[in-house]
Write a structure and sequence with these properties.
The protein has 233 residues and is mostly helical. It has one domain (13-232). It is built from 11 helices and 2 strands. It has helices spanning 13-33, 43-54, 58-61, 65-80, 84-90, 93-110, 117-134, 149-164, 168-197, 203-220, 223-232; strands at 137-138, 141-142. It has a two-stranded antiparallel sheet. Strand 1 (137-138) and strand 2 form a beta hairpin. Helix 1 runs antiparallel to helix 7, helix 4 (65-80) runs parallel beside helix 7 and helix 6 (93-110) runs antiparallel to helix 7. The longest helix has 30 residues, at 168-197. The two termini are 32 Å apart.
Length: 233
Amino acid sequence: MKVKIPSLSSNSIYLGVLLAIVGGFLDAYTFISRDGVFANAQTGNMVLLAVKAANKDWSASLHFIPPIMAFIMGVLVSEMVKIPHLRDVLHSYRRSILILECLVLITVGLLPKSVPNIVVTVCIAFVSSLQISTFNKIDKWAYNSTMTTGNLRTATQAAYLAIKEHNPEARKQFKEFFVIILSFIFGALAGTFSTTYIGNSSIYIAGGVLVVAVILYHRDKGYLSETIKAKLR
């Protein structure tokens, strides 16, 4: 019996599930291992920056600037790889972003425990930014793989339309966003248990999920067959 491998195009629900698992995992990882910090979203950092500045605690306020800057840098990198001549070199900028995410997470896993928390949170913020900026759609709908507030709002609105107007498209949207939300929760649970019992090296699990995403995405785009053909020439 032939097993059908799911499609992993950039707006595929299957890729969305893998990325949401990583997003939930990283939030739990940084919260447990890095003093209760959520590195994926920068809203909290901006609020805390403003609070510390308002209280004239300038030294404390400076701690929140590096992750915000790392997030901005991630957005810039995700845009730079779309430049035409870079896209030609990379063949697939989305695949390159996935590989870059893997490399950053592996680097985080190799860091000694003595490394300050800010170094790790900056790296995670950079990865989160890359992911948000590059993979932001399921089918034709915008979504977020590292934060779930917007996904929850979209799922609730879609459920309302599906029930009230019997809208089949809204029903499909609700199902897909519900799966993404569950995947994020699953990732957070996995991150909680693995970080608690394994420690900082559990970050390799998130990296492993991204490796699977890279391999399947590579296959879906036909790069594997192209590579094999090139070697046979």
